[in-house]
């Protein structure tokens, strides 16, 4: 396992789901953590404190809103000021909205592009100078099977995720000689609040029951017929932070139960 003692990881959208699993995995390897995301303050504090007590590292919460470029830069600066460096940046915050394109609300398109794509640009832009100065860095973007294939009614999400796959490759090439790697991870369906919340809209858009959405829409895409777990995604991210992954860069790593093999 990667030893991340003395390193700092910033994980966007880590008050829930996959992001929280990343934060806990990096903490288990010794990294200090900046968690980020929305939620009930008492719940966020509980997760933050649990990271500190479970893994004997430091953890702080940045309330940066991923739609606000200045707040994203402040989040990176907060990590650097608090711990002296930001060595690992995981761009993970994301939202979903499901609707036929002709009814797709314009503000939902703008929010998805901002949170799921542009926030990664702003975070990377702010973190790369420090990584270059120290000669080490790991940038991991949570993409999705939807960075490789599309599904109907998810125009903004699929566009943002295809975009992040391109951003990943571009950044990897730019920082390749600085011992900084940049990769994206593309999960299939992971049972998190993001997936649970889209079920009612998918029921409406496709005229299906909840059971039908789970089995005929979500798991239909996954040959294994099982959800991916957040912990499996986090374990892959942790591997990317180790020395064994130093030559893995610019890739899009699928963890999707065979979805994109079809
Ligand atoms: P989730 O809803 O459990 O977590 C999303 C996180 O993003 C939360 O911490 C939330 O507070 C945060 N967030 C949302 N808007 C924000 C904003 N404006 N500013 C700051 N933080 C914000 O979802 P998840 O399933 O864990 O998704 C995490 C990432 O994984 C997303 O990028 C998602 O697209 C991707 N993904 C998820 C799945 C899946 O099946 N769950 C599959 C592929 C990819």
Automatic annotation (TrEMBL):
One of its GO terms (biological process) is monocarboxylic acid metabolic process. Gene3D superfamilies: NAD(P)-binding Rossmann-like Domain. It holds the Pfam family adh_short_C2. One of its GO terms (molecular function) is 3-hydroxybutyrate dehydrogenase activity. NCBIfam families: PHB_DH, PRK12429.1. Belongs to the short-chain dehydrogenases/reductases (SDR) family. This is 3-hydroxybutyrate dehydrogenase. It comes from Tardiphaga robiniae.
